[in-house]
Amino acid sequence: MLPGGAADGRRVVTSDDALHAPGLPGSVLVVGGGAIGVEYASLHRSLGADVTLVEAADRLVPLEDAEVSRHLLRGLRKRGIRVEAGARLLEWEVVDEGVRAVVRTARGESVAVAAERLLVAVGREPVTDGLGLAAAGLVTDGRGHVVPSDWSRLETAVPGIHVVGDLLPPPSLGLAHASFAEGLLVAETLAGLRTSPVDYATVPRVTYSSPQTAAVGLTEAQARDAGHDVVVNTLPLTAVAKGMVHGRGGLVKVVAERAGRVLGVHLVGPHVSEMIAESQLVVGWDAEPADVAHHIHPHPTLSEAVGEAFLTLAGRGLHQQR
């Protein structure tokens, strides 16, 4: 996963190693700009380290809405984190003072980066080789995920054997809260209770950085690619009093059908992980903006911005008009 070698747990670390590595580095090079990479870059910056974050895709958290990615990039750079998107780690070596690396930037330049620690956050894969799963009758995909034969019960091809968590292939998201729901589904199935399958389309996604991101449902691009006639409303968090008090920017973006239901809600800013749950209900219940626009949000809270975004799409906006 790295050109030239593997993690040693000291100078070159994974996200697991980073929690146990000795001391705090004065500088760190983070490779991978998905949720884990962004979270660890933000964490190290909060602890005082100089941070360089490298992502191969053309933007951070590339699975999220592009507008959220832009605001996240702006927020991280404002905190002093050097971000190189569309870039690749070409080579690296461990030296006495840490790690020396060469990064190819999106501009085609080869840039030398020195850091006390290199943190690798380029994804995880199941470790299922050698477990004899095929001999037991279980089906795996090319990456080693265990494939259920019945997703409604998460039951494998072998009756009575179920699979949850990181071993599941997409559409499972490999998120802790999704895994919890999967475990609950299996436990209730084994107990003979009436169950409902996990609705992966409405599982919230959160990046615990500063600023945070949170989302549920389709991005604007995904909605358009799926053929929906899309209408979008974007509202800065500073449109409400609590957002002005925080003074840290951020936004709410709602993606909806022009004459119908809310398809996705996307947030970036302080504490937005605490604001996404209501939007999960809106998306999961196929609600339209007018269905939820009358709900009153407490004042002053950041959640008022979510309510205002729905109000605007329903034609009743206080700070915006469609």
Describe the 3D structure:
It is a single chain. Helices cover 24% and strands 23% of the residues. It folds into three domains: 12-120, FAD/NAD(P)-binding domain (3-Layer(bba) Sandwich); 125-198, no CATH class; 204-313, Enolase-like, domain 1 (2-Layer Sandwich). The longest helix is centred in the middle third of the chain and has 15 residues, at 176-190. It is an alpha/beta fold and 322 residues long. The protein has nine helices and 13 strands. It starts with 11 loop residues before the first strand and ends in a 9-residue tail after the last helix. The mean pLDDT is 94. β6 (98-104) and β7 (110-115) form a beta hairpin. The strands form three sheets. A five-stranded parallel β-sheet has the order 1-8-2-3-4.
Which SSEs are present, and which pair or pack?
Blueprint: E1 12-14, H1 15-18, E2 27-31, H2 35-46, E3 50-55, H3 66-78, E4 82-85, E5 88-95, E6 98-104, E7 110-115, E8 117-120, H4 176-190, E9 205-207, E10 212-217, H5 220-225, E11 230-236, H6 241-246, E12 251-257, E13 262-269, H7 277-284, H8 289-292, H9 304-313
Parallel strand pairs: 1-8, 2-3, 2-8, 3-4
Antiparallel strand pairs: 5-6, 6-7, 9-10, 10-13, 11-12, 12-13
Strand composition percent: 15-25%
**SS class:** alpha/beta
CA distance, first residue to last residue: 47 Å
The count of β-strands is 13
Whole-number total of structural domains: 3
Rounded to the nearest angstrom, the radius of gyration is 22 Å
Mean pLDDT: 94
Order of helices and strands: EHEHEHEEEEEHEEHEHEEHHH
CATH fold name of the largest domain: Enolase-like, domain 1
Give the helix level as a range of percent: 10-25%
Determine the number of helices (DSSP H or I, runs of at least 4 residues).
9
